[in-house]
Design brief:
Helices cover 31% and strands 19% of the residues. It is α/β, with parallel strands linked by helices. The two termini are 31 Å apart.
Length: 336
């Protein structure tokens, strides 16, 4: 994303428009599907308030987790209920299915109404913009505002498809995130430490490749680390791993050595037979994992190593969680 080419809402303000606002309300949920951490909701509030102050009518689009199909456990209802606490005085409504909703809901929307479309990933068309899905979304509004930095690398219909049909802008959170990263990458203070987590190496290959050109250390955790460990021949039990991407992991390790960048992988981990059991979790060296166990966090030894490196850093770039943060038992690596 070219920072200079993005039109931001504070630099190109508009009034009285119907706005389709893409946010990232992919909040962490407790095992009982209540909100465990509302940080992502709070981060979106400044953009929402800015647009409302300029007398725009908002239709909010977001995802929650990666449900393979429509599933009430991943409904945005829990988010809508929470959002009402931050925006008192507004009638915030969840639209179960925007494609079957009566047209008057959208055509007669007033400034005091905020419409939130149900989890956009309930629609299989979202992934590959099938059947003119982005055009149907765009037809609901006059302009599109992207404030979801965390998914801006994706080619989903609600991210890249909509602005092909209506004018697109960047929100205040997107602007802040891009400015911070641009500053860190263009003029980093040494030593530079990159912390990369998350589940999949497939979505981080280009990021890691880029960061290795400026970073002195790249600390890797999350499910992402499993693929690197697999590539080194480590038995990771039943842990998530993109085995088909092992060659990519090999290549990144090779490039890191050539560029004199140290890639640091976990030396110990927290394992469990169940990702949802809050009372589980066993610390093990990476060469002690058995077949039924899965890795859900880094261990204390790895935390200490990561911590000592981070303590010396002048620039820190962090992308993605280090453990399975949906379970409090596996958040220690991310929270330390």
């Amino acid at each position: 994303m070219n920072h200079e080419s993005v039109r931001y809402i504070d630099k190109s303000p508009f009034k009285g428009k119907k706005v389709l606002l893409r946010v990232d309300f992919n909040v962490t949920l407790n095992p009982n599907y209540t909100i465990a951490d509302d940080a992502r909701i709070k981060q979106a509030i400044p953009t929402i308030q800015f647009l409302l102050k300029h007398h725009n009518r908002l239709i909010i689009v977001s995802h929650l987790d990666r449900p393979p199909k429509r599933d009430p456990k991943y409904s945005l209802k829990v988010v809508v209920d929470h959002l009402k606490d931050y925006l008192p005085g507004y009638n915030i409504r969840l639209i179960d299915d925007f494609m079957t909703e009566k047209p008057e809901t959208f055509t007669q929307q007033n400034e005091q109404e905020i419409l939130v479309l149900e989890n956009i990933r309930f629609y299989p068309e979202e992934k590959h913009d099938e059947n003119g899905f982005s055009k149907k979304l765009a037809a609901l509004a006059d302009v599109f505002v992207n404030d979801a930095f965390g998914v801006s690398h994706r080619t989903d219909a609600s991210v890249v498809g909509i602005p092909q049909h209506i004018p697109g802008y960047g929100g205040l959170l997107l602007k802040r995130e891009i400015e911070m990263i641009s500053k860190a990458i263009k003029k980093p203070r040494k030593p530079v430490v990159a912390i990369i987590g998350g589940a999949k190496i497939s979505s981080k290959i280009s990021l890691i490749d880029k960061l290795m050109t400026i970073a002195d250390y790249v600390l890797i955790g999350g499910g992402l680390a499993n693929t690197f460990l697999c590539a080194q021949g480590v038995n990771i039990g039943s842990s998530f791993c993109e085995y088909e991407k092992s060659e990519n992991a090999h290549r990144l390790l090779f490039l890191a050595a050539r560029r004199h960048t140290a890639i640091i992988l976990p030396s110990d981990v927290v394992t469990s037979d169940s990702k949802d059991d809050e009372n589980s979790g066993t610390v093990k060296k990476i060469d002690q994992i058995t077949g039924k166990e899965a890795i859900y966090d880094i261990g204390p030894e790895t935390q200490a190593v990561f911590g000592s490196i981070i303590a010396k850093a002048k620039t820190i770039i962090w992308n993605g969680p280090i453990g399975y943060t949906e379970n409090p038992s596996f958040k220690r690596g991310t929270d330390f």
